Structure to design on (805 residues):
């Protein structure tokens, strides 16, 4: 177990370094630069030079990269060019909202998908209806689904606020603001999870030990819950881990529709402004979270499948 | 007479009662600016939120675009137009409590005219030879040569005055003398303003708090307006949404003019648009009226040169090249293009501007009707800035030029249009050096005609200003003579 963890940590560090360095490299090759993004149209060339000097962008790229690396090793992510604010503070502002949204969204998706998959498997009539519904949900783009929910549950039936996020200081208000975006995410993600769960349950149900259980006279519902659910949830855990990582920034469409200041829109702004310290900081944090998710998934495997051992 | 007086008193009483003060106004704007100092970035979102609301200069534009007193009570120019004396308003305080005096003005303009200071537009102030404080409330500017735009430039957002010595902090925490003081900039969320108790105009402002929210998605803005999360969509409402909201008794739509010329830029330094005949063919091939009616549902005014109808010395040249496909074909043939050798080029559209994008697509469709093949290419903003704007590496593009009174860009041969005309540069210099406003106006009109003659670009329309709000919001600026969502006199009726 210890050597397993050590290997994972070293691998994680290498991943972090590689990901953030690649971002720096890509930004060098993209047209456009942060100074122009700040100054905008029509600014004088003298103003350009002055701002370049002030931001240290007149130094050669390798020197800027070395600066960034030494700073990062001291756990200082530097200052965002676009926002003139420490990258760490910006991430601190955005991360809680994004994590809340992803957890609620994925939790909601799981909460919808798993019981429905069990239902579909138990009753063939439901199977057809639910598979159809899920296919529909999967093919509706999130920006459309979001706007429909927005008009239904915030405008015409004003149960929830339409946009924004007040912060977690008042948990009830925070939940109210997160409900619609999380529901949008949950509905669109539930489709994938449902198909995954249904598929893997079907596979497990064909196994010999299920036949044995049935032959022993175990009721069908009990077979599903006791014997099929646990082994069938392995691929589900994998998908959840992947989705969690993706949604950290992949929820950007939902963030835009509900005007939420999350990590996705921060990443987009950083990219548009060619704000390399901010983008590198974001990539670092996100890569770290994804590595963590994957580790959790691997550990969950061990719990769900007794054959998995860590060495 | 007495009846009239009674009526007058009644009306003014009604007005006084109808202007309840207090409350919070929440306004959506599309984009977040990179900084909050209008001298550190040319982003128009900065003055939209802060001009006159928070930051003020010696003089300012009113809703009609006239120059009116702000921090200067009155001023006079010498007969030669070389010396300008400004008498400052007394008893004005900055939001941090510091008194506003002539020293702040001197500091501001010494910095502004220093090209090394990082001020985005030092050229506005380059004719200032010296600026001196004669006493704490009198400032004297001496110019090297007459400059027709001197006062206009002092009214621009670039000329706002902050406390002496404060520079870096203004970028993120602006301090000014306006009716509202800056409270917070929540990154990615919005900017909060609060009523400034020490404002010098008695009784103003009416509102207690203003919250400008950044909402990049038009659908989200509309939903938030309908749900009551915001009361105003500050700008850029789509024509379709405007028509729908207009019919709804709970909302009203405010439309007026801007200083944005939606311009199809042509690279005059490169084939095929280095050929005047081709540029003229483009002018005849595009039906601007159809664009206004069809694409913008009637919002917007066709123009024919680089100036907006709401600006001074405007000359209407929208009919200079009438829509005439046959003539366009003939001009193309003369230039060597025909059915066997069609005119082909790349038409670069900048992603973040919805009006311009859909106009560009419609223009490409109109051009294709006479056999011109425009290949559409959509690029994101940073790419547009570096490739098209800075590098002039393009053939045709479309963008709104929103700065007021910006015809001078055509006097710069390195500008992305690559328009190199000695005649235009001479006219522009003569315009600047002519102290008599009437004669300067004549030259300004001649400049507009020359641009139209040379068909430098295709000027499509003056972009409409379209804002939408709940009906209880009163006092919103109808026009945008300078980008400014001015909330000084806005109130919520009940």
């Amino acid at each position: 177990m210890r050597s397993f963890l050590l290997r994972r940590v070293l691998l994680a560090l290498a991943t972090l370094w590689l990901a953030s360095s690649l971002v720096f490299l890509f930004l060098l090759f993209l047209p456009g630069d942060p100074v122009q993004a700040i100054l905008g149209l029509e600014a004088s060339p003298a103003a350009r030079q002055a701002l370049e000097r002030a931001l240290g962008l007149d130094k050669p790229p390798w020197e800027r990269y070395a600066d960034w690396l030494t700073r990062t090793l001291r756990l200082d992510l530097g200052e965002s060019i676009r926002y003139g604010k420490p990258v760490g503070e910006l991430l601190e502002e955005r991360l809680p909202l994004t994590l809340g949204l992803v957890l609620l969204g994925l939790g909601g998706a799981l909460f919808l998908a798993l019981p429905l998959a069990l239902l579909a498997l138990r009753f063939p009539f439901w199977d057809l209806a639910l598979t159809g519904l899920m296919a529909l949900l999967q093919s509706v783009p999130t920006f459309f689904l979001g706007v429909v929910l927005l008009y239904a549950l915030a405008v015409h039936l004003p149960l929830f606020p339409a946009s924004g996020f007040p912060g977690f200081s008042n948990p009830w208000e925070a939940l109210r603001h997160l409900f619609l975006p999380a529901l949008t995410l949950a509905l669109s993600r539930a489709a994938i999870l449902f198909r995954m769960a249904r598929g893997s349950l079907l596979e497990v149900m064909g196994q010999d030990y299920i036949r044995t259980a049935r032959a022993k006279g175990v009721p069908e519902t009990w077979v599903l819950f006791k014997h099929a659910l646990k082994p069938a949830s392995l691929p589900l855990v994998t998908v959840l881990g992947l989705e969690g990582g993706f949604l950290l920034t992949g929820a950007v469409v939902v963030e835009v529709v509900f005007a939420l200041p999350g990590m996705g829109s921060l990443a987009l702004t950083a990219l548009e402004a060619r704000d390399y310290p901010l983008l590198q900081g974001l990539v670092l944090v996100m890569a770290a979270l994804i590595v963590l998710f994957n580790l959790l998934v691997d550990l969950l495997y061990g719990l769900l499948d007794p054959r998995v051992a860590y060495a | 007479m007495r009846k009239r007086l009674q009526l007058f008193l009644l009306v003014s009483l009604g007005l006084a009662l109808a202007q309840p003060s207090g409350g919070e106004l929440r306004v959506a704007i599309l984009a977040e600016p990179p900084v909050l100092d209008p001298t550190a970035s040319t982003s128009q979102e900065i003055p939209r939120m802060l001009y006159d609301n928070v930051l003020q200069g010696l003089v300012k534009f009113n809703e009609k675009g006239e120059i009116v007193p702000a921090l200067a009570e009155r001023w006079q120019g010498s007969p030669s137009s070389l010396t300008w004396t400004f008498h400052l308003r007394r008893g004005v305080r900055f939001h941090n409590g510091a008194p506003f005096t002539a020293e702040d003005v001197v500091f501001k303009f010494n910095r502004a005219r220093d090209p090394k200071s990082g001020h985005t537009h030092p050229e506005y102030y380059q004719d200032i030879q010296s600026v001196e404080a004669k006493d704490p409330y009198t400032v004297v500017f001496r110019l090297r040569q007459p400059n027709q735009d001197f006062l206009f430039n002092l009214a621009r957002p670039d000329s706002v005055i902050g406390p002496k010595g404060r520079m870096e902090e203004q970028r993120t925490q602006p301090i000014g003398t306006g009716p509202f003081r800056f409270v917070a900039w929540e990154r990615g969320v919005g900017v909060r303003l609060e009523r400034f108790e020490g404002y010098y105009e008695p009784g103003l402002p009416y509102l207690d708090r203003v919250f400008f929210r950044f909402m990049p998605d038009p659908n989200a803005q509309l939903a938030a307006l309908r749900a009551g999360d915001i009361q105003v969509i500050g700008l850029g409402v789509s024509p379709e949404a405007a028509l729908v909201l207009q019919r709804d008794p709970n909302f009203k739509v405010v439309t007026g003019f801007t200083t944005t010329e939606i311009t199809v830029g042509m690279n005059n330094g490169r084939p095929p648009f280095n050929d005047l005949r081709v540029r003229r063919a483009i002018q005849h091939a595009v039906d601007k009226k159809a664009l206004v009616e069809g694409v913008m549902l009637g919002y917007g005014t066709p123009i024919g040169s680089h100036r907006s109808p709401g600006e001074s010395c405007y000359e209407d040249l929208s009919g200079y090249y009438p829509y005439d496909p046959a003539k366009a074909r003939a001009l193309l043939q003369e230039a060597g293009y025909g059915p066997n050798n069609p005119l082909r080029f790349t038409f670069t559209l900048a992603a973040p501007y919805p009006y311009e994008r859909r106009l560009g697509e419609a223009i490409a469709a109109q051009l294709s009707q006479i056999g011109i093949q425009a290949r559409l290419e959509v690029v994101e903003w940073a790419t547009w800035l570096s490739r098209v704007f800075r590098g002039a590496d393009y053939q045709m593009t479309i963008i709104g030029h929103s700065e007021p009174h910006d015809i001078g860009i055509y006097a710069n041969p390195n500008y992305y249009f690559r328009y190199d005309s000695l005649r235009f540069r001479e006219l522009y210099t003569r315009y600047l050096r002519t102290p008599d406003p009437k004669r300067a106006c004549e030259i300004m009109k001649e400049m507009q005609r020359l641009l139209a003659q040379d068909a430098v670009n295709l000027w499509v329309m003056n972009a409409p200003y379209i804002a939408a709000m709940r009906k209880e919001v009163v006092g919103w600026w109808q026009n945008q003579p300078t980008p400014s969502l001015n909330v000084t006199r806005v109130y919520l009726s009940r």
Observations:
- The first strand of chain B starts at residue 24 and ends at 29.
- Residues 8-14 of chain B have pLDDT under 50 and may be disordered.
